[in-house]
Write a structure and sequence with these properties.
Helix content: 25-40%
Bound molecules: fe (ii) ion
Structural class: alpha/beta
Largest sheet: 7 strands, mixed
Low-confidence stretches: 83-101, 107-115
Distance between the termini: 34 Å
Strand order of the largest sheet: 16-17-15-18-14-12-19
Oligomer: single chain
Number of helices: 17
């Protein structure tokens, strides 16, 4: 059988995905969960071994890489940057495929030893991989695709028309591009660094603290960067960072609030452009900036139907590369595509533990593909009452200003949250929505009264059955859901990680 392997590695958040010739996603995972290094940029042997379990003798394997390395190296060279993982000879080398092949197979030593010789190695443009990861996992037959990230090879934002031809082959027509160094993602990362946070990691904290400030400095940011025009061209290259003297002495929460308002302004310009360039009511949105769930509440002003896959950043691009290799619509079911902790999802036991202890870990079934815990590697808690936030924080030790996320039975979401226009659901925590009962659920409500909602559809998954049972027992259709991880580490992957969590925090983790 033909199988399509997608790889993203070498920059940050390495990932591996495997798709078969029926369009089924057999495996998708992040290297960091195996190596325990947050945002691990390289593939590690453990994830390779696990992906290989899905490859049978006689399979023809097509390897798909998520970038065009020599194009990226050329951009880095022109920009005066130090070269990335691919050396200078890659740019001019006559045997570029062999260079990539060597790189892949060096990391895939086990793979070679097992005698699985890749049938073909192919590279794909970075933004096209984002487009494919997003479009081919959506239910749409045609869509406008918007990709906004920090940077691919040269593209920093792109708009595409996506559709399937009569043979079911996915087609992508690029309608617009914003090229390096003009980058909405790099701007946001630079502002993240300006606030003393880690760029390419803590952008979500900037987004979170924005709710605590007043957007007093939007005009200053506009004057400095000047990108809020139809061309979206920046006055300066934010890739090299922002001088600390910019807005020196200003309140950091106010800077964050202003930075968020400005990024929303830029995203709106792109969305408006996308709406004009392609006649479709369907939006498929990807790239790391699509993780800004606060900004996503505006998308319904431009499109009626919205799809953001659970892993729209670069780790998700491994699936985009595999999708391009396969070429057709994927059979998307849910995000549970990683390591399997085998067993029946422990519904009864977990409800009992929640009623007795209020807080319990769960590690059961396949790990989520994406940065957010969606219920198979989660720390769950009863969301009601004023004490639960600090109790969960005794374990999580995260900043008190950050709220936790709620998961709710999808059909009841409108009773508890004011979902933004054209957001009927949010299965992967893609959007924030005002909570109608903030006093009842203070642990899951942010300073601005919103929550990062996860709606759980009636799809028979373990987490759905758990929420149903919890609702039946308590009359509350909501659980607090935060990631199950040892502090400073990526999310728990297997049972031995869960055991370590149990010991360290003296908190039960049920499998
Ligand atoms: Fe990207």
């Amino acid at each position: 059988m033909k199988k399509y392997l997608g790889i993203s590695c070498g920059f940050h958040d390495a990932g591996v995905s495997l798709v078969d010739d029926n369009g089924d996603i057999l495996f998708a995972g992040h290297s960091e969960r195996y190596s325990k290094k947050k945002h691990d940029s390289e593939l590690c042997p453990e994830i390779i071994d696990e992906a290989l379990e899905w490859v049978d003798n006689g399979d023809r394997l097509f390897v798909n890489y998520y970038e065009r390395p020599w194009v990226k190296a050329w951009r880095q060279f022109r920009a005066g940057q130090k070269l990335g993982p691919f050396n200078f000879s890659d740019i001019f080398g006559t045997d570029i495929y062999n260079t990539l092949y060597e790189r892949v197979t060096k990391q895939w030593g086990h793979f070679m030893h097992d005698g699985h010789i890749p049938h073909f190695v192919q590279t794909h443009p970075h933004h096209k991989c984002h487009a494919a990861a997003s479009f081919q996992t959506s239910s749409f037959d045609e869509a406008t695709i918007v990709i906004i990230d920090a940077i691919g090879e040269n593209d920093c934002a792109t708009i595409w028309k996506g559709y399937y031809n009569k043979k079911g082959k996915a087609k992508y027509k690029k309608l617009w591009t914003l090229k390096y160094p003009n980058s909405i993602g790099l701007y946001y990362s630079a502002m993240t660094a300006r606030l003393g946070l880690r760029p390419l990691d803590e952008e979500y904290i900037l987004m979170g603290v924005a709710a605590y400030g007043e957007p007093k400095y939007v005009k200053d940011i506009e004057d400095k960067f000047g990108a809020h025009t139809d061309s979206l061209l920046f006055k300066e290259n934010t890739h090299i960072g922002i001088d600390d003297s910019f807005l020196e002495g200003a309140d950091e929460f106010d800077i964050a609030a202003s930075a968020q308002v400005y990024v929303e302004k830029l995203i709106k310009i792109v969305m408006s452009k996308a709406r004009q360039l392609n006649k479709s009511d369907n939006l498929v949105y990807g790239g790391g900036v699509a993780l800004n769930c606060s900004a996503n509440r505006f998308l319904g002003q431009y499109f009626e139907n919205i799809w953001i896959m659970p892993n729209p950043g670069d780790a998700g691009n491994s699936l985009g590369a595999a999708a391009l290799g396969y070429g057709k619509k994927l059979n998307w079911k849910n995000a549970f595509l990683g390591t399997d902790i085998v067993g029946v999802y422990p519904v009864v036991e977990t409800v009992k533990a929640l009623k007795e202890d209020k807080i319990v870990g769960i590690a059961s079934g396949r790990a989520e593909f994406g940065p957010r815990a969606l219920g198979t590697r989660s720390l769950l808690a009863d969301p009601r009452g004023s004490k639960i936030k600090s109790e969960v924080n005794k374990i999580k030790k995260r900043q008190q200003f950050r709220p936790f996320a709620p998961m709710i039975l999808e059909e009841l979401v409108d009773e508890y949250f004011e979902m933004p226009t054209h957001w009927n659901n949010s299965p992967y925590m893609q959007v924030t929505a005002p909570c109608k009962y903030p006093k009842k659920f203070p642990a899951i409500v942010h300073k601005d009264g919103t929550s990062r909602v996860q709606t759980v559809p009636n799809d028979g998954t373990g987490i759905r059955r758990l929420l149903e049972a919890w609702y039946k027992e308590t009359g509350c259709p909501i659980l607090l859901n935060t990631s199950l991880n040892v502090r400073g580490e990526p999310m728990v992957n297997d049972r031995s990680d869960a055991d370590r969590f149990e010991k360290l925090y003296k908190t039960r983790v049920i499998s």
